[in-house]
Amino acid sequence: MIETKALSPSLGVEVTGVEDLLDPTVIARLTEALKWRGVLLIRGLHLDDAAQLAFSRRLGEVVALGGNEIFTVTLDPSKNPAAEYLKGTFHWHIDGTTDPVPVKATMLTARHVAMTGGGTQFASLYAAYDNLPEQDRKRYDELRVVHSLGASQRLVYPDPSPEQLAQWEQFPGQETSLVWRRRDGRRSFVIGATADHIVGMDPAESRALLDELVEWCGQERFRYTHEWQVGDLVIWDNTGMLHRALPYDPSSERSLQRTTMRGDEAFR
């Protein structure tokens, strides 16, 4: 029998009693919980790649990033050529903010964990918006923000080389509303490491506002910190949750297997 327990007041639920992940009734219940709680945790599943892919496909179309449906999250460059890029994930972010339609959900299975650090934090952008004073919501509703890869990479490399700048500029940025008016009636922010500037605003004022918003959204009452155990499965609503990895030693064996499900709602 499936049972659920809240992970924090604002977001997240731990699911127990799952016997068949592919059962349509189970899938329906998990999908509903993911929509309203944003983060799902099932401990001790120990899924292999084939089982994770099969489960992911029940939740949506799996995106093949770089031609691979399974992506290994590790700072070991011998296991992941993009390991250096992953250092940017230590900052709050949403995946796909430079795409017209961001990925809907992300799933991680823990194969190895760090001895120290290496947890993953989530913050609910729905709860953060809903708890703003009314005058602030009205102000933010009218603003637009430009997202870019360069903005997130400058947090890791504040003094980039000409070669790095040229590489980042190969990826076009995107302008979105600061507040995403969702088709289900909810609203959430589109912010994080990729948020470069507010359109039409003084650069210093823009930076201060974006930093202030990230600080507001990341406060403890809207946040859940997951400390990984081997075999854990975590799924989250990428469109409504900020997330970030907590720093850990690059020589750590920490290794997570990631699948992502294609989104179906464009930014507005």
UniProtKB/TrEMBL annotation:
Annotated keywords: Dioxygenase, Iron, Metal-binding, Oxidoreductase
InterPro entries: TauD-like_sf (IPR042098), TauD/TfdA-like (IPR003819), TfdA_dioxygenase (IPR051178)
Domain TauD/TfdA-like: 4-260
Superkingdom classification of source: Bacteria
Transmembrane domains' residue ranges: none
SUPFAM superfamilies reported for this sequence: Clavaminate synthase-like
Family indicated by similarity: Belongs to the TfdA dioxygenase family.
Annotated protein name in UniProt: TauD/TfdA family dioxygenase
Native organism taxonomy: Bacteria, Bacillati, Actinomycetota, Actinomycetes, Streptosporangiales
